[in-house]
Amino acid sequence: MMTITHTEGESNTSEARKSWLKQSIGPMSDPLLKRDAEAFLHQSLSSPCVNTITKAEGIWIEDLDGRRYMDFHGNSVHHIGWGHPKLIEAIKAQLDDLPFAPRRFTNEPAVELAEKLAEIAPGDLGKTLFTTGGSDANEVALKIARAATGRFKIVSFWDAFHGAGFGAASVGGEATFRSHIAGPLLPGTEHVAPFACYRCPYNHTGPDTCGLACAKMVDYVLEREGDVAAVIAEPMRAVPYVPPAGFWKAVRKACNARGTLLIMDEIPTGLGKTGKMFAFEHDDIIPDIVTMGKNLGGGVLPIAACVARRDLDVCGDFAIGHYTHEKNPVTSRAALTTIQIIEEEGLVARSDELGTYAKDFLQDRLSDVPIVGDIRGRGLMFGVEIVENRADKTPGNKLAERIYYACLEAGLSFKISQGCVLTLSPPLTISRDDLDRALAIVVAAINEAT
Predict the structure, then answer these.
(1) What does the buried/exposed string (b/e) look like for 280-305 if buried means 16 or more CB atoms within 10 Å of the residue's CB?
(2) Which of 116, 168, 272, 377 could form a cystine bridge with 162, CB 3.0-4.6 A?
(3) pTM of the full predicted structure?
């Protein structure tokens, strides 16, 4: 069962959540929600659930009582929409042809996918290992970095998310995935402050005045530590937050100077979401290792990948993945077909075009609304920050929660990031009419909250 994910930072017992469940859950959905709460371990952000789902098609999801929602969340997996006919057909055909392959036996779909990833990745990013999830792909990347450099320290950013595995949570910076773990996390994981232009303590207002103190801090830590294997980061934070101009070039230069590898986590942003095939391409840099996942399986099957520079193929004498589904032909076929659909339907350029349109739409209608602090993003990953007071940028968490449930009631599902950012991430296949309808729902809910 998929869920309409509740807001980050929202308690499973918040008043807004309880009100929604009481007023909006129908008689068909309620019994399954209760069974779900009894059967699954409870955790923040996913369980207990806020609703059921019985159908997913295109941009739409539908609950057991027939209520339909435009899905502007999709856990970042639905780039090509839910249940794309070409993808479903390809998966069915592959199941008939070859349903599984033990990892020591290769097969055509797996090799073809690895070759395709080397083709679409820039530079010398050409050697691949598949995993079933992005968290594992990041841990493979960390192992490669340690093996290639002979070092063990990793620098990452506070507030970043790199997965729920032990190593991935250690380099991540979100309290939700770290605070519950008793005892020390992975040793050698150092964190620095993330780029945060809107809340920059140096009061820089744009690329002409930004001193890139945030990038200089990375260089400072690499110099002082002296033995850092890699910097791992999201090229654009999926909250969403766009880096300042020149940030990644400065970090790339610092890594080169210190013999440190640069790992880019493209798990939510890759394959066109930001208007380029990879988000780091906006900043004119090439990492040493890139990881991708979520959307790679087309919103149907779980598959992720770690793609490294060819000269980083240094782990042949030991296992760095050894996953049961490492060369699964069915998940490989799903990924191959997903990339083909993205290319054939021109979805990368479409994401850029519609994303620009959406941000202009929101700016035009919300720029003077006092509870809107910022409108930001790239491509079809954009967000509206809700504040209590624009002057001092006080986060408007409760206002954002009210807006979220008003939008859900009107038929639009998304998530809230950082407690107060309405984070909107529709499929790249969305029509202009549906995008207009969704944006109008957001604007109306914000104006009502104001």
Answers:
(1) bebbebbbbbbbbbbbbbbbbbbbbb
(2) 168
(3) 0.94
